[in-house]
Amino acid sequence: MRRANHTVVSEFVFLGLSDSWYIQLFLFVLSSIIYVASMLGNFLIVITVTSDPHLNSPMYFFLANLSFIDLGVSSVASPKMIYDLFKKCKVISFSGCITQIFFIHFFGGVEMVLLIAMAFDRYVAICKPLHYLTIMSPRICTAFLLAAWTIGFFHSVVQMAFIVNLPFCGPNELDSFYCDLPRFIKLACTNTYKLEFMVTANSGFISLGSFCILIISYIFILVTVRKHSSGGSSKALSTLSAHITVVILFFGPLIFIYTWPYPTSHLDKFLAVFDAVLTPFMNPVIYTFRNKEMKMAMRRLCSQIGSFRKIS
Fold it and tell me: For residues 287 and 66, which has the higher predicted lDDT (pLDDT)?
């Protein structure tokens, strides 16, 4: 009887980023270039690290896994956004919307733990260099990776358990270009105050807490580095600056989206584009151009591919 009295929503309509044809054309070209570059860049990092024996340290192990996760992050929302830019009616099914939310939080949770693992790796390398190989053993690196995937999975599943059975009877318009929890929950035909608090606690406070822990740890590492004046310390500073930049780019939009109590449509959309499109692209750029070993390894890989093509 309750279903007969309500229109059950089976799909959602995205309002998109802009109604201007010129802005849509600009976004289409820019987003397409960034998406392709992001996929190629992250894929190149994964192939380079896995194929080059010189890059067998824990730092590059975590970097390859971060790039692998960024391949997933790039593919959750960007292809749909690019495809929808010139469509008058931007529609996604209910199951498609739930799937997007699941993978956004799954990949986000995994990346969060990987960034913490990379910070711990740099702490051990700089503050306890004599014990580095003992502490950051292959077993510990594998444990970090398993923990990242497990935490990411449970972080996402816990939220899915609360929202998958929510009643939706209209409206079904999302003022965004992809599905995510804050706007999705507000469309439910029920009191969502507790659910919104759960989202803030699960995603917002976890992001804020992880960000504070990372920043404090990097400050502690930087203080340790400042006590040294050797060439090795300048290399460490270069590596740390790249890590800190990635942390700020990743957590900044997340903290604002999930903790700011007064959402603004234009700013939220800009941060969403930044988080879903630009961040996976910036990670390989930052780690590649700030790392001499990565650039040398990529040159070796390209030369090997060139030699193989000449022989064949």
Answer: 66
Q: Give the phi and the psi of residue 114 in degrees, each rounded to 5.
A: -65, -40
Q: DSSP for 261-273?
A: SS--HHHHHHHHH
- Structural tokens at position 311: 């022989």
Mean pLDDT on 225-230: 67
HSE-CB for 10 with a 13 A CA cutoff:
2
pLDDT at residue 306, rounded to an integer: 67
Its pTM stands at 0.86
Instruction: Evaluate whether 178 touches 272 at the Cβ level (below 8 Å).
Output: yes
**Any idea of the CA torsion for 126, 130, 136, 138, to the nearest 10 degrees?**
140
Task: Report DSSP letters for 33-49, one per residue.
Answer: HHHHHHHHHHHHHHHHH
Query: What's the average model confidence in pLDDT over 149-165?
Result: 88
Tokens of 48: 């380079």
d(CA 302, CA 312): 15
Are the CB atoms for 274 and 256 separated by under 8 Å?
no
Please check the confidence at residue 106 and state whether its pLDDT lies above 90: yes
Burial tier of 113 (Cβ tally within 10 Å: 0-12, 13-18, 19+): buried
**Residue where the block lists tokens 């990776």:** 145
Q: What pLDDT does residue 265 have? A: 62
Nearest-angstrom CA–CA distance, 198 and 185: 11
Nearest-angstrom CA–CA distance, 307 and 312: 9
